[in-house]
Design brief:
Radius of gyration: 17 Å
Shape: globular
Distance between the termini: 36 Å
Strand order of the largest sheet: 1-3-2-4-5-6-7-8
Strand content: 15-25%
Number of helices: 11
Number of strands: 8
Length: 258
Amino acid sequence: MFIKEAGDETGPLLIFLHGGGVSGWMWDKQLEYFQDYQMLVPDLPGHGKSSSESHFSIKNSAEEIIRKIKLKAHGKQVIIIGFSLGAQIIIEILHQEPDLIDYAVINSALVRPMPLFHSFISPMVKSTAFLIKNRTFARLQARELYIDNENFDTYFLESKQMKAETLIQVLKENMVYTIPKNFSKAKTEILVTVGEKEKGMMRKSAQDLIKANPNCKGIIFPKVGHGISFADPKLFNKTIDAWLNERKLPENMQIISN
């Protein structure tokens, strides 16, 4: 697994986990902002500079990141931030190692399984594979994630490079993932976030997570769908910074009650 390292090696350890279909570049605005931290930004298997690793699973990815954290932490405070697929991996890390992480931000994690769609994923991906290489289709997909013109060419290139088998694995893992039993035991301070315009399933997933662990707090980012760190990186960074340092969160945030 390729891992980019940045920031201040003497600072707390901060790990960013990207969503499916993108890679570590999605956190570039965060790397600029959190310079006082020692930052690790993996490209998950099958994505970006880890595209040669064709097999993907949430469990295996969590295990590999856990190994990297243990290698790098050296008694430091450990913070982990993940979006969508990366947020599911965080949940798995907290399940496997309830005492490892100090702070976690779980952004837009689906934890309500959709097994009815599971059997359709493989034929659907194979029958529509040609669309991945279509620039117009890629533009539509990028718009859904708030990917701007600056990053579109990278997104389009990596989309074309992703193997169909990897995409099938990613989608299957994403759609059947549910909250594992040890998540409730995690001693981590957890911030669960979701966009106001996201699908109801995502809002319900956020509520499920908050109910599952007493250390969870939840907020809704206003007027945004799936991809707050792309849509409004300044607001995202300011919010995470305030939460980590126990300052007042930006105005207009809705609290998710449990």
